[in-house]
């Protein structure tokens, strides 16, 4: 029930960030100053475009039931999702080395890009082998990292509202936007009795 209740909120936020990324792609004047001055404008555009596609497609891939997962639409969206992440992830890895926030942010965003690419490739390879369960798990990890685009945009205004300077907050957010997401994804794979026991122990 909790999953069903939270899915609409997750999907709305994902589609909202997808539209925001599309707006930044087609209207450069809307970009923050540090993005307007990016030394890798082509990588920036590929990152925005691919990320927008992956963010829009991802929630609906996770929502489908057994029958829908065998449908041509699911397979088509899956291919779009994978191709979008391959493009956006490679561009994001290049951009990580010129991101704001210094070395800590560079490494954080670089690890995110590598993890994003790696989990998505594993999701593709496992379904090619016919291992549906492993595919679902790798796709969950992949989308948890895709969702870093949402959590980053939640943490940034929150840090500003708390009065934390951007230069202090951004290196932390470069890690916080994706590590907890991945932890939650892994927790979802734990059998429910063990989940209940771990919650009760807290």
Largest sheet entry: none
Terminal residue distance: 22 Å
- Give me the strand/helix succession: HHHHHHHHHHH
CATH architect. name: Up-down Bundle
Summed up, the domain count is 1
Indicate the CATH topology: Four Helix Bundle (Hemerythrin (Met), subunit A)
Task: Indicate the proportion of strand residues.
Answer: under 5%
| Secondary-structure content class | mainly alpha
- The stretches of 5 or more residues where confidence is low (pLDDT under 50) are none
Q: What share of the residues lie within helices?
A: over 70%
Indicate the mean pLDDT.
89
Tally the helices: 11
Shape: globular
Gyration radius over CA? 17 Å
Oligomer category: single chain
Output the CATH class name. Answer: Mainly Alpha
Number of strands: 0
